[in-house]
Design a protein that fits this description.
Structural class: alpha/beta
Number of helices: 15
CATH class of the largest domain: Alpha Beta
Strand order of the largest sheet: 2-1-3-10-4-11
Helix content: 40-55%
Number of strands: 11
CATH architecture of the largest domain: 3-Layer(aba) Sandwich
Strand content: 15-25%
Order of helices and strands: HHEHEHEHHHEEHEHEHEHEHEHHEH
Radius of gyration: 20 Å
């Protein structure tokens, strides 16, 4: 029934677009747009969504209302958008992890490729692997040597199974062929606090979260997830420099419901591109450690499919499942 209802709505919308011609995309939006954040208020995605909503409101001349609908590793918020009318008025901003990882970790009520349309990538995000000075290592090679000497003894914290912190550490483990013990926490903040308190030895968090601690000398950066060196962590090796082909960029991106007319999707993507590249938002994103991209539906869709396959393989090869 769910898919029949969506099909009928899609047919109705398509017929309306055919009658209205090109004016449909030109006129979008003619009413408020809802931008869903699939996590609780106050997190990084919430901050970025409110910046994006404010810029889109200026560009479109219509309110963009940000709503936080957290739960089930972002699946609740994403499913809400899946069930909405395919007219471009309900969008979701999510991160690569968990957008393309949750579908491999647990059963969700939607199919990512069938039910959601990638609209635009807003920014690329780098992660940094940092360790406590107490561990006594200053390079990633030293960490690998210690881990191989005592398999499973070194532990790492994450914001929960399937979180970016978890997935990027699994990526590094896979590339380096080492065994570390995973200790999941209820959020990135508690995991970083555990590192500060000595309960864990390593975390692989966003550069945004790591920089203040690096500058204060509380943690030592050993590795960045990107293919290119980080301008804010000069001298720290990339995953690709140590293990060619192993890096994977994180990202934030906007999706909407499948069946949304292509000209409407393109109009939304163009608005997002302008918002993240030609306004003050670009400067603010860089200050947060993100690189604004504004990639459109086709290129973003390719990235989503590629990352889903790569993360899915890592999850399946390591038999990772949601708690």
């Amino acid at each position: 029934m769910k898919y029949m209802k969506k099909f009928l709505i899609s047919v109705s919308c398509a017929a309306g677009v055919a009658l209205a011609g090109a004016a449909a995309a030109v006129d979008y939006p003619t009413k408020p747009v809802r931008l869903i954040v699939p996590f609780a208020a106050g997190g990084t995605l919430d901050v970025v969504a409110r910046m994006l909503g404010g810029e889109l409101q200026k560009i479109w001349g219509q309110p963009v209302v940000v709503e936080d609908k957290g739960g089930a590793g972002s699946a609740i918020g994403v499913d809400y958008v899946d069930k909405s009318a395919p007219d471009g008025y309900t969008l979701v901003l999510n991160a690569a992890t968990p957008m393309v990882t949750v579908i491999h970790l647990q059963k969700v009520p939607y199919d990512l490729e069938r039910d959601l349309v990638p609209v635009a990538q807003t920014a690329a995000i780098d992660y940094a692997l940092v360790v406590s000075p107490r561990l006594g290592v200053k390079t990633f090679k030293e960490l690998v040597a210690l881990a191989r000497k005592e398999p499973g003894k070194i532990n790492y914290g994450s914001g929960g199974t399937g979180s970016g912190m978890h997935m990027y550490m699994e990526l590094a483990k896979h590339a380096a062929k080492i065994d570390l013990t995973h200790i999941p926490y209820k959020g990135n903040g508690p995991a970083m606090q555990a590192l500060m308190g000595g309960q864990v030895d390593v975390v692989f968090d966003t550069i945004l979260a790591a920089i203040p601690l690096v500058k204060s000398g509380k943690v030592i950066p050993l590795l960045v997830s990107s293919a290119k060196p980080s301008p804010v962590l000069p001298g720290v090796p990339t995953m690709d420099s140590l293990y060619p082909g192993s890096s994977m960029d994180g990202w934030h991106g906007v999706f909407t419901t499948a069946g949304t007319p292509k000209d409407v999707v393109d109009k939304i993507a163009e608005g997002i591109r302008k918002a993240v590249l030609t306004t003050d938002m670009a400067k603010r994103l860089r200050e947060l450690g993100f690189e604004p991209t504004g990639l459109g539906p086709e290129r973003f869709g390719e990235i989503v499919r590629r990352d889903s396959g790569r993360w899915g393989k890592i999850i399946n090869d390591n038999k990772i499942r949601a708690n």
